[in-house]
Amino acid sequence: MNTPSTEQALHAVALLVPDYDEAIAFYCDLLGWQLAEDIDQGHKRWVRILPPGAQQGSLILAQASGATQTTAIGNQFGGRVGLFLTTDNFARDHARMLGLGVTFEELPRYEPYGTVAVWQDPFGNRWDLLELTAS
User: Fold this and answer.
1) Burial class (CB in 10 A: 0-12, 13-18, 19+), 131
2) What tens digit of pLDDT does each residue of 104-118 get?
């Protein structure tokens, strides 16, 4: 199959949260992420955030609606780590996050791909904090 040359990028990933403002308080006010957009659409809000220094690869905070979505909060990835936050300085960011009270599930470990530790947001979503090994 011959496909035309294209350029694509992952713009955002939606993350179910119990409350927009509670999630903004954690990610933006506590962790220092950028609130890129917060648009009231009447029945819901379009809330897009980016990690510090990021130009792309944003997170859409989606307030759960109904029992099915509410049940999925913190388990969108079936108990696995589903979100990966890369950093240019693992030790700095790990220490800062610990100081802010972020819950880490493990001590930092060193893998062939980089330094990593699993952490959780207040809603139960599991993340990797990851400094990739230079390739």
Assistant:
1) buried
2) 999 999 999 999 999
**Cα–Cα distance list, 67 to 18, 63, 76 (Å):** 11, 12, 14
This prediction has a pTM of 0.91
Residue 102 DSSP one-character state: P
Residue 32, amino acid:
G
Q: Please state which of the four CATH numbers 3.30.310.80, 3.10.180.10, 3.40.50.360, 2.160.10.10 is assigned to the domain occupying 77-135.
A: 3.10.180.10
Residues 87, 12, 84, 50, Cα dihedral to 10° = 30
SS3 state at 30: helix
State the residue for tokens 């307030």. Answer: 63
Distance, in Å, from the CA atom of 43 to the CA atom of 16, rounded to the nearest integer, reads 16
